[in-house]
Automatic annotation (TrEMBL):
Coiled coil: none annotated. Transmembrane segments: none annotated. Residues 139-368 form the Sigma-54 factor interaction domain. InterPro entries: AAA+_ATPase, AAA_lid_NorR, CheY-like_superfamily, Homeodomain-like_sf, HTH_Fis, P-loop_NTPase, Sig_transdc_resp-reg_receiver, Sigma_54_int. It comes from Anaerohalosphaera lusitana. Signal peptide: none annotated. The modification 4-aspartylphosphate is found at D56. GO terms for biological process: phosphorelay signal transduction system; regulation of DNA-templated transcription. The keyword ATP-binding applies. This is Nitrogen regulation protein NR(I).
């Protein structure tokens, strides 16, 4: 029987049970190992590049299987974690799935079924690399829709076909573009992004095509444009829907002919670039309105992908949370690995108008505000926790979620208002104008409340 090539870690403080699972899995997996403590499990995850973790919930130590789950997902987002819990512990199983577990099983576990599950995760590959190793760093999703996009990208990335990515601001379009580049044959050459909406037409032309010395006032030397800098690599045209029509015509000629003439130059330069473009507009509609060239639209739309907003894929938030939590902790020098169930519930119910970009900033703020090693409801910025989340309830009905009620039951309206204002001021670092906007009150009213509540 051919063996799979991935690495499987069994985490269980019952040595006999762990060894039994290892022995069973080694019949099909060439590298299955056991860890009998949380510390040794985390060391193996850091050291060995584990592909699948099978962890018992009850480790009878200062931690549990959910902690190992979160640690493994933070270390490598593509790691598949299978949690095993007692038959009556459905709460742990449900929480594990919300946190990004591949599966949650209850005891007794059928070993043959477990082997089959692992074989599906780690199919045999002649090159010794699991299919799941072909990942898109920083691009994390469990949603069915996004998994469909990833399947397309696995086919598209190794080719030279142009890709158009559409979606709202903050959904991670540039991350996806970088992932396409990193999984292509051009990965050893440059990935060059340019925001077509953030520059004047003349500056955009100079940035794209470069310029010769003396081409205009201030051009004291020859300068290569981004098209030339991206030669043999990937050019990422962000917000291409905002590019002026006259620039669209010039860009089309370069993409068709592969020839760039810098501004003010007489000598042409041959370039070979792959184009990935992104927009938060409906380009097809812009074409109908004569605001975007149809020929350029067809040229950049080799393959078209639409990224859904975060509010339509709340199931992705736990894994995204783990990824951004690890980034924030490394940046800020904190050691935080967990979030309470009530806090995660609030994050998953929020509508995220700023999408993934906003989620990343919120998690960073939570890490800054956290006093311990576990993130809780009180660490969530007030505009997410106490203002915007009310929009998720049924109109005309009060918000009766347990965390909301527990926090304010028995307190006066003045106490609730004072606490809300205090948290908002903390969130804005004392910026009263910003706090007033979040609270939807005038600055004078806020100033009066601050004096009234001695804040």
């Amino acid at each position: 029987m051919n063996k799979t090539k991935g690495k499987v870690l069994i985490v269980d403080d019952d040595k006999d049970h762990a060894d039994l699972l290892v022995e069973s899995l080694q019949k099909q997996c060439s590298n299955a190992i056991a860890a009998y403590t949380a510390a040794s499990a985390k060391s193996a995850i850091d050291r060995d590049g584990i592909d699948v973790v099978i962890v018992d919930y009850d480790l009878r130590s200062d931690t549990d299987g959910l902690d190992i789950l979160q640690y493994a997902k933070q270390a490598k987002s593509s790691t598949k974690v299978i949690l095993i819990a007692d038959q009556n512990n459905t709460v742990a199983c449900e929480q594990a799935i919300r946190m990004g577990a591949y599966e949650a099983l209850t005891k007794p576990v059928d070993v043959d079924s477990l082997r089959l599950m692992v074989s599906k995760i780690l199919p045999t590959r002649g090159d010794g690399k699991a299919v799941e190793d072909f990942e898109f760093p920083g691009v994390i999703s469990r949603s069915h829709y996004m998994q469909g996009i990833y399947k397309v990208l696995r086919r598209v990335a190794p080719t030279n076909i142009s890709v158009l990515i559409e979606g709202e601001s903050g959904t991670g379009k540039e991350l996806l573009a970088r992932a396409i580049h990193e999984n292509s044959d051009r990965r050893d050459n440059a990935f060059k992004p340019i925001n077509c909406a953030g520059l004047t037409e003349s500056l955009l032309e100079s940035e794209l095509f470069g310029h010769a010395k003396g081409a205009f006032t201030g051009a004291t030397a020859d300068r290569k444009g981004i098209l030339e800098q991206a030669d043999k690599g990937t050019l990422f045209l962000d917000e291409i829907g905002d590019m002026p029509l006259s620039m669209q015509a010039k860009l089309l000629r370069v993409l068709e002919d592969g020839i760039v003439v810098p501004v003010g130059a007489t000598k042409a330069v041959v370039v070979d670039v792959r184009v990935v473009a992104a927009t938060n507009h409906d380009l097809a509609k812009l074409v109908e309105e004569k605001k975007f060239r149809q020929d350029l639209y067809f040229r950049i739309k080799g393959v078209s992908l639409t990224i859904p907003p975060l509010r339509k894929r709340a199931e992705d938030i736990p894994e995204l949370f783990g990824f951004f939590l690890r980034q924030a902790c490394e940046e800020l020098g904190r050691d935080i690995h967990r979030i309470t169930e009530s806090a995660m519930s609030i994050l998953q119910s929020y509508h995220w108008p700023g999408n993934i970009r906003q989620l990343r900033h919120v998690i960073r703020t939570m890490v800054v505000m956290c006093d311990g090693d576990t993130l809780d409801v009180g660490d969530i910025p007030p505009d997410v926790h106490l203002v915007k989340r009310l929009s998720g309830r049924v109109e005309g009905q009060p918000d009766m979620s347990q965390d909301f009620v527990a926090q304010f039951t028995g307190r006066s309206l003045e106490e609730v208002e004072r606490e809300h204002i205090r948290r908002t001021l903390d969130y804005t670092n004392g910026n009263r104008a910003e706090a007033a906007k979040i609270l939807k009150i005038g600055e004078r009213t806020l100033y009066r409340k601050i004096k009234e509540y001695d804040l």
